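2024-03-11 09:14:02 INFO worker-7 job=invfold-0412 stage=load source=structure_tokens
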């Protein structure tokens, strides 16, 4: 059987790809009339050929073959690669900066962190713009956690109204059950201290800050010193060798600690609290002076070993931004109302039950706590006062008597004490409901402190004033 010779295989020549006919699948009767085109390859007019689809403009082919087109294409490609490389580098830099910043802030937060962790008794407000309390403790004793020279200051921050209130909390306030009382500042832990103060004053404490003598000294020196108006001179050899006069003074770190520790003031605990409050105000004013951004972060970094707190860097930055420069904020100061006392076991502070509640109501509402001292005082014309000169100041009793009469008080009796041994002016009252009246008299005199008569003082009038060496006649 003869083999059938295979037909010659068909294939498209390379140049036929460019010279084929489009649309040859269209039925012959409906195909449009072919136009003359010199580019169509004449040989092979099969219906399966594809027409030439190249543009008729021969410049297209010349552009494809020209060097300028290739160079332009290469240039565009290089530009795209450069742009992509720059974007990748910028993203890498941003990512590295973000990671580095987080590592940096994490290290600062770690150095500031309390060793015991965040106290369980901390309670932050639900709204970040609501007022909140910060408890600040200064441990200034030589060895133990608690000392009479310790500082407790309660700071109320009101971001919306750009206001701050600093309240001194005497560390020797007695708390606990009857017969088992102890100083409020004498606690075993940060959490116990915060809980004791919060429970006693019926408030929530949002944050806690603690420093010690060395930390305070370093902090003040790092800040370049502070300016403080001292109410009494400091010359206690038990705490330092400096003799620092009263009045406006520039203090370095060592001197600041001496001011906060001194125990030979005319009324040691009371004057020391006033000095400590003035120091705290100066430190806060220097730390939070309106700096922001990287400058503020580096400042906190340099101070982060000098105090411990539950606050994080971002929280401190937010507080500073919302409150603004501390010295520009409206500032109130005060002390928990009460009187100092002492016995064979040491000193103690007796809080006035009649004044504490209205005092805290004023503080919580953002008012001036100083006004609580005179709330509930009697009409001066209904109050009788005895005035005694206990300092030996010539004409002191007569001058004070006239001063009180000018303020509306009745002064039927005046004279001198048996001996001139009183360093501090005392305004003595008999009953708790007279304490506010006694506070009003302190305001009139511009010095002194209120004292309960108890069993130690006896007089016939409502109030007795004993002039001390801290009193001076008003300048004429």
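2024-03-11 09:14:09 INFO worker-7 stage=emit residues=476
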């Amino acid at each position: 059987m003869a083999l059938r010779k295979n037909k010659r295989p068909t294939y498209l020549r390379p140049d036929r790809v460019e010279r084929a006919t489009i649309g040859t699948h269209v039925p012959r009767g409906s195909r449009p009339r072919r136009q003359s085109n010199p580019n169509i390859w004449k040989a092979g007019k099969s219906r399966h050929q594809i027409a030439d689809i190249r543009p008729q403009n021969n410049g297209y082919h010349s552009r494809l073959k020209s060097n300028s087109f290739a160079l332009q294409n290469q240039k565009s490609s290089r530009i795209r690669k450069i742009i992509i490389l720059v974007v990748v580098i910028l993203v890498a830099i941003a990512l590295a900066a973000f990671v580095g910043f987080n590592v940096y802030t994490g290290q600062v937060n770690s150095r500031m962190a309390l060793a015991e962790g965040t106290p369980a008794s901390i309670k932050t407000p639900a709204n970040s713009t609501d007022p909140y309390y910060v408890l600040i403790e200064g441990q200034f004793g030589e060895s133990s956690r608690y000392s009479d020279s310790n500082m407790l200051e309660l700071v109320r921050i009101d971001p919306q109204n750009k206001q701050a209130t600093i309240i001194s909390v005497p560390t020797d306030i007695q708390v606990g059950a009857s017969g088992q009382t102890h100083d409020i500042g004498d606690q075993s832990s940060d959490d116990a201290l915060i809980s004791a103060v919060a429970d006693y004053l019926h408030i929530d404490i949002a944050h806690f800050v603690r420093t010690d003598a060395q930390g305070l000294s370093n902090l003040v020196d790092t800040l370049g010193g502070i300016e403080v108006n001292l109410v009494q001179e400091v010359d206690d050899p038990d705490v330092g060798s400096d003799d620092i006069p009263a009045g406006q003074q520039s203090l370095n770190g060592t001197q600041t600690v001496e001011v906060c520790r001194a125990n030979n003031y005319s009324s040691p605990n009371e004057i020391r609290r006033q000095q400590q409050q003035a120091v705290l105000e100066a430190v806060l004013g220097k730390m939070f002076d309106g700096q922001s951004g990287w400058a503020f972060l580096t400042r906190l970094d340099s101070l982060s070993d000098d105090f411990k707190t539950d606050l994080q860097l971002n929280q401190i930055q937010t507080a500073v931004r919302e409150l603004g420069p501390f010295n520009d904020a409206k500032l109130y100061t005060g002390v928990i109302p009460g009187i100092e006392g002492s016995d064979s076991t040491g000193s103690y502070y007796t809080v006035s039950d009649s004044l504490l509640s209205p005092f805290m109501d004023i503080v919580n509402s953002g008012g001036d706590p100083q006004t609580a001292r005179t709330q509930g005082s009697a009409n001066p014309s209904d109050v009788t006062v005895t005035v005694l000169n206990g300092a030996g100041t010539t004409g002191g009793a007569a001058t004070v008597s006239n001063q009180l009469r000018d303020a509306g008080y009745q002064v039927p009796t005046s004279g001198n004490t048996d001996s001139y041994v009183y360093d501090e002016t005392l305004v003595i009252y008999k009953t708790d409901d007279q304490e506010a009246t006694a506070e009003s008299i302190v305001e009139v005199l511009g010095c002194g402190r209120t004292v309960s008569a108890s069993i130690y003082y006896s007089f016939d009038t409502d109030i007795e004033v004993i002039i001390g060496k801290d009193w001076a006649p008003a300048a004429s």
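2024-03-11 09:14:09 INFO worker-7 stage=report msg="Residues 40-45 have pLDDT under 50 and may be disordered."
2024-03-11 09:14:10 INFO worker-7 job finished
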